[in-house]
Request: fold
Amino acid sequence: MRAGRFRTLGTIPEVVPSMSIRSAPWRKSNDPASKMTALSEIYEEVSIETDGVRLPGTLTIPSQATGVVVFAHGSGSSRFSPRNNQVAQIFHSQGVGTLLFDLLTEREARDRRNVFDIELLAARLVAATDWLIEHLAFLGRPIPLAYFGASTGAAATLIAAARTTHPIASVVSRGGRVDLAQATFNAVRCPCLLIVGSEDTEVLKLNQLAAPFLPLETEIKVIQGATHLFEESGALEKVANFSTEWFTRYFSQPPSGLLRGALER
Reply:
């Protein structure tokens, strides 16, 4: 691919209010003190160590989960993104587990250069993937793994999918700045679903340009009337439903997404 194929857009922040979640150990769904939904088997506030820092996250795995999706949030956001959390809740109801974590520490996020350092964000996602595989080894069975990225986080998921040593079943991008990962398009080996709002015209153009350079099993889903943040009524539900269908399809096609690393040692 020739350099300069894509033009760079301006900053598209995804600003969210601050929230807090009480720390909790591993709990089963019959524990009334748990903050899990009735379908949940595992809920844990976690800490992922990498590059000398600790990245907090929330791991939720429903009973008999078909797979686990690792989220990569957009610029100006965090694991508390209300949009990502809304999507994650729908995943849980459909038997899909999630890991939402901060790609940057609070101190790092104050430096805007870090927020748009896609290489750094991708490295953090690869580290989280390694951590998750080790952390879930106790389950005693391989579990498919996928990525869900929003805005700039989508670029990080594509790069991480190309660079991780572990199989990734599929990637879903929500309003993704996929142009920021163009250098690694030819190394991405898993199916990719690019979800874009019809009114997010600039990002839609970038996704349409990117799709031919991604794996053959790449699709674009355009949600009519939706803008970049999918704030319109029913838009996020459509994102979640399209994503769940995509993940479930490729979770069921071994060995492409199996978390084998720790289990096969």
